[in-house]
């Protein structure tokens, strides 16, 4: 069965952390923690931000490494119920006090409207890390994202997000063709369990600025093959800078990857730190 989807379904949710094993989540969590603590307004939060909202949290890999560093009162959201199911299972296994709720990037304020304190808004900081922004294929959707984040932050609240740039897509397109096994604990477990197998292949269209990743997933003994196709847009850093300038958020800094060096137009990944204007 083949289809295009930018919302992860159960087979890929089960395989996700095996597919993303190349990502150093402890390092990402440490970088995010350090930036939030360093740039939080000390007159507002002498001990740093404590109430965090993560958008696009996926299976909770970042949350599991970041929450204990605060410790933070952590609400993790994702549009995929399948990803949230895996995230809840993994957080419970570690007895972590991370709460997970369904919410979309561009409707997060509305989607969380029924979530009451201490879980609901306003938040000290919001996060959207590892390519989440790139799933928004139109600039108007990025503008909506920035506006929605502004609605759930307290005055002076921080928004830390990253973008993968055209330079990264051009360099990495051929590199991200690989395969591997994963432990399937979802539907195939109910059918008898066992390992699944995945194949991942990426290609980049520089003329359209689109990066297409195809995942092929098999259950045990080749059962239930599924194909998912995910599309991301590789924005230039200047495009995001302009969108921030026109938003309710002020740019605090733009960092080159997982460093504190200033980003440039040649950066392969940019981490943006923005603050809600008061």
Short description:
With 278 residues, the protein is of the alpha/beta class.
Describe the protein in words:
Helix 6 (139-152) links the parallel strand 5 and strand 6 (153-164). By secondary structure, this protein is of the alpha/beta class. The chain has helices at residues 10-19, 25-39, 61-66, 81-93, 108-111, 139-152, 166-172, 187-190, 237-245, and strands spanning 2-4, 51-54, 73-78, 98-102, 123-128, 153-164, 178-183, 195-205, 210-218, 226-233, 249-256, 269-276. The chain has 9 helices and 12 strands. The longest helix has 15 residues, at 25-39. The chain has 2 domains: 2-164 and 236-276, 3-Layer(aba) Sandwich (Rossmann fold); 169-233. The strands form 2 sheets. A 7-stranded mixed β-sheet has the order 4-3-2-5-6-12-11, sandwiched between helices. Strands 1-10-9-8-7 form a 5-stranded mixed β-sheet. The relative contact order is 0.16.
Topology at a glance:
Blueprint: E1 2-4, H1 10-19, H2 25-39, E2 51-54, H3 61-66, E3 73-78, H4 81-93, E4 98-102, H5 108-111, E5 123-128, H6 139-152, E6 153-164, H7 166-172, E7 178-183, H8 187-190, E8 195-205, E9 210-218, E10 226-233, H9 237-245, E11 249-256, E12 269-276
Parallel strand pairs: 1-10, 2-3, 2-5, 3-4, 5-6
Antiparallel strand pairs: 6-12, 7-8, 8-9, 9-10, 11-12
Helix pairs in contact: 1-4
The CATH architecture of the largest domain can be given as 3-Layer(aba) Sandwich
Mean pLDDT equals: 89
Task: Please give the largest β-sheet.
Answer: 7 strands, mixed
Write the CATH homologous superfamily of the largest domain: Vaccinia Virus protein VP39
- Our measurement of the CA-to-CA distance between the termini, rounded to an integer number of angstroms, reads 50 Å
Helix content: 25-40%
CATH C-level label of the largest domain: Alpha Beta
Task: Identify the overall geometry.
Answer: globular
Q: What's the number of helices?
A: 9
Radius of gyration: 18 Å
CATH fold-level label of the largest domain: Rossmann fold
Return the structural class: alpha/beta
What percent of residues are in strands?
25-35%
- Number of beta-strand segments: 12
How many domain units? 2
Q: Which sequence of strands runs across the widest sheet?
A: 4-3-2-5-6-12-11
This entry's quaternary arrangement is: single chain
Unreliable residue runs: none
Order of helices and strands: EHHEHEHEHEHEHEHEEEHEE
């Amino acid at each position: 069965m083949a289809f295009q989807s930018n919302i992860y379904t159960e087979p890929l949710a089960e395989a996700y952390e095996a597919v993303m094993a190349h990502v150093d989540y402890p390092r990402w969590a440490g970088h995010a923690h350090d930036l939030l603590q360093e740039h939080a307004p000390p007159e507002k939060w002498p001990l740093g931000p404590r109430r965090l909202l993560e958008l696009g949290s996926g299976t909770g890999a970042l949350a599991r490494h970041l929450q204990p560093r605060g410790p933070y009162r952590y609400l993790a959201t994702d549009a995929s119920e399948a990803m949230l199911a895996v995230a809840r299972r993994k957080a419970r296994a570690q007895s972590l006090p991370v709460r997970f709720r369904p919410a979309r990037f561009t409707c997060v304020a509305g989607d969380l409207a029924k979530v009451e304190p201490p879980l609901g808004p306003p938040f000290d900081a919001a996060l959207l890390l590892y390519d989440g922004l790139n799933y928004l294929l139109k600039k108007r959707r990025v503008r909506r994202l920035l506006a929605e984040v502004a609605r759930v932050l307290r005055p002076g609240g921080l928004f830390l997000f990253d973008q993968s740039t055209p330079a990264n897509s051009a360099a990495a397109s051929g590199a991200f063709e690989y395969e591997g096994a994963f432990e399937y604990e979802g539907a195939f477990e109910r059918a008898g369990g066992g390992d699944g197998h995945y194949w991942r292949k990426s290609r980049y269209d520089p003329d359209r600025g689109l990066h297409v990743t195809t995942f092929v997933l098999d259950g045990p003994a080749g059962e239930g093959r599924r194909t998912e196709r995910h599309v991301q847009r590789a924005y230039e850093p200047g495009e995001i800078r302009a969108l921030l300038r026109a938003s309710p958020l002020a740019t605090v800094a733009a960092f080159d990857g997982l460093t504190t060096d200033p980003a440039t137009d040649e950066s392969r990944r940019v981490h943006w730190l923005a603050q809600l204007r008061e």
